[in-house]
Amino acid sequence: MLKQKELQNIIDQFPEERLKEKAFFGIYHYGNNTDESFIKANTEGLQLFALQLLRSTLDIDLTSSTANQNTISLIYDEDWIDEHSDTLIQYIHPVFEKPVPKIIKKNSPYFSGKLVGLAFSLFALLVVVALLIGFVTILKWLLW
Length: 144
Known about the structure:
By secondary structure, this protein is mostly helical.
């Protein structure tokens, strides 16, 4: 993990004003659903967006010490961000501990599902018994 000073040195290396001249960045959806999203950007746009994210990491420490501030604002209305983007990321909600994943219990099949399986098994057994009785009966007729 980078220290604050190292991170600030990286941020200072970005020529922000020069990048803004050519930058283009937008987040879009493919089709009508949000399950297929993509970024449409040039190099300068990606670098400026990365710069915003890097700056927000500096603000996370300040947010953790400030009780009344629980979001970090991002700039989303600049000229380099496409106004026709489907998604405009306006802020970051910091998380200070990794959330514990929910454990999903696998339920055994419902009683009705078990009942259907049992009924099918009994029907199959009945068919096999009927076939055996029929086969034995045919053999008795042929042998008499």
